[in-house]
Amino acid sequence: MVSREGNVQHQHHKTQCVIILCFFVGEQVKYLTCSCGVFSKFLPNFRIEGTTVPMSSFLNPYPDFAQLESLLSNEQKQTQLTVRSFVQNEIEPKIVKAYRSEEFPVGLLAQMGAMGLLGANLSGYGLPGMDTVSYGLLMKELERCDSGIRSAASVQGALVMFPIHAFGTEEQKNYWLPRLFSAQSIGCFGLSESEGGSDPGAMKTTVKDKGDHYELNGSKMWITNGNLAEVGVIWAKTELGIRGFLVPLNLEGINVIKMQNKLSLRASITSELVFDRVKLPKSALLPKTEGLKSALQCLNQARFGISWGAIGAAEACFVEALHFAKNRILFKKSLTSFQLVQRKFALMATQITQAQLLVFRLSQIKEQQNLQPAQVSMAKQVCVEMALNVARTCRDILGANGIMDEYKTMRHMANLETVYTYEGTNDIHLLILGQELTGISAFN
Ligand SMILES: Cc1cc2nc3c(=O)[nH]c(=O)nc-3n(C[C@H](O)[C@H](O)[C@H](O)COP(=O)(O)OP(=O)(O)OC[C@H]3O[C@@H](n4cnc5c(N)ncnc54)[C@H](O)[C@@H]3O)c2cc1C
To answer: Whose alpha carbon is nearest atom 14 of ligand 1?
Structure first.
């Protein structure tokens, strides 16, 4: 494996090597073309934040106690390495500035589109149909950098492309899916309103049939990518129940307002959308949407990606804190020599491993198209809660340094507060599980 400083330390899985053609710019791998078989000695400057933790490996420089890497195909390893290289070279250098300035890095979605990372698990219409584990690894690598970056990709793929794919006409699919895949167009998803995101059925936004057109009125809050978007998948009440509409955001009567001064997910754009007598063409309806359950189907796609992604954030914090603790000398000893500190790392590694196992197994079930909403709820709830707890513990281990943004841990911690709340709060997922287990709905 390769250490944080770039020294090759040891290599555990010789048989799992993958050849990577790489071009170095300065000290970083600038581009990777992976086929099969790489030897880490060829990559002396590859900046994987490594540790000497037993059971870690080239791909997973954090404890891989369940040896999940040995279950990955070469293609899945290629995907993970390619995305990690892209994240390290293109996003990591920009993320602190983006977070401080509350701006999404300019042109980043276009870069992701050029790499085929958006809606990559969908197929047909020129989409790659990536397998479920690869998709999860992609989400994990994005969120290893920042939850806001993963959120932008999640919204585009799971909350905009998925509903068009699942509920759209052939015309809508043929027009929008290739454009959204390449990021020629950016989309957003408008379900939440100011009064109670956990109760979307109480929404006040309406669409009225006016004969030759529809009229849209109302507002949506907390809309990721809103100010970047050309089109919104907007959920509204109609005479026939809740339906989804494809709304071009440049129409007259639409106001998109950036929500500023967030203390979490600052590298992600969050917006309020206001609709005042907006005239929509009849072609805006996503005709196969049927009530709130269609919106929830989209959320389940995104929640699955979040479960994988949150583990990436936890791993990033774990690696940073372990590296720090090893080098931190207190009472003439490394901080890692103390039993209380070792206990923290032991518990975190165990919790991360449990989450890794859960999402890996659920990915296999999803690949067989058998994944149920309650299983997704369990994964979202437990992975995000784990990641938030790991981030908080790592922040503690970093001491005062941990409050500075030159360390990533507190940024992850603050981001995970949003991830804990959006896409169904932690409580809501527990209630979904409670209902599944008892047959009793305790929502109201
Ligand atoms: C940065 C960010 C980005 C977002 N992006 C999007 C987006 O792109 N599109 C979109 O549509 N939405 C988005 N959201 C909105 C998000 O989905 C909502 O915030 C979330 O659903 C929770 O709604 P709320 O904030 O109104 O909290 P509330 O629903 O008011 O909940 C407040 C508290 O009450 C608890 N609670 C609620 N109901 C119950 C109950 N029945 N029993 C017990 N406890 C309960 C909750 O768990 C929570 O602790 C985003 C939010 C954030 C913060």
So the answer is: 222
Q: What is the distance between the alpha carbons of residues 390 and 314, in angstroms, rounded to a whole number?
A: 6
Residues with CB under 6 A from ligand 1: 155, 189-192, 196-198, 222-224, 265, 270, 418, 421-423, 425, 427-428, 443
Check if the beta carbon of residue 60 is closer than 8 Å to that of residue 69. yes
C-alpha separations of 283 from 43, 245, 246, 337 in Å: 53, 9, 8, 65
* Pocket probe mutation, ligand 1, options 204, 422, 431, max atoms within 8 Å of Cβ: 422
Helix (H) or strand (E) holding 237: strand 231-238
Compute the average pLDDT of residues 321-345: 97
- CA 189–ligand 1 middle distance (angstroms): 14
- Give the residue whose CA is nearest to atom 21 of ligand 1: 197
d(CA 270, ligand 1 centre) in Å:
14
Tell the residue nearest (CA) to atom 24 of ligand 1.
Answer: 197
Compute how many other C-beta atoms are within 10 angstroms of the C-beta atom of residue 405.
Answer: 13
From the alpha carbon of 200, which atom of ligand 1 is closest? 21
Q: What is the mean pLDDT of residues 241-268?
A: 98
Bridge partners (DSSP) of residue 208 are 215
Number of the ligand 1 atom closest to the C-alpha atom of 268: 1
Strands 213-224 and 206-209: antiparallel
Instruction: Domains for the chain: give ranges and CATH numbers.
Output: 14-96 (no CATH), 187-292 (2.40.110.10), 300-438 (1.20.140.10)
String of DSSP letters for 271-302: EEEEEEEEEEEGGGB-TT--SHHHHHHHHHHH
Written as six digits, the tokens of 86 are 């892209």
Tokens linked to 288: 């196969």
Q: Is residue 49 very low, low, confident or very high in pLDDT (cuts 50, 70, 90)?
A: very low
* Active-site amino acid positions: 423
pLDDT for the residue 58: 60
For residue 30, the model assigns a pLDDT of: 36
The predicted-structure confidence for 89-128, as pLDDT tens digits, reads as follows 999 999 999 999 999 998 999 999 999 999 999 999 999 9
For the cut 60, the answer to whether the pLDDT of residue 235 exceeds it is: yes
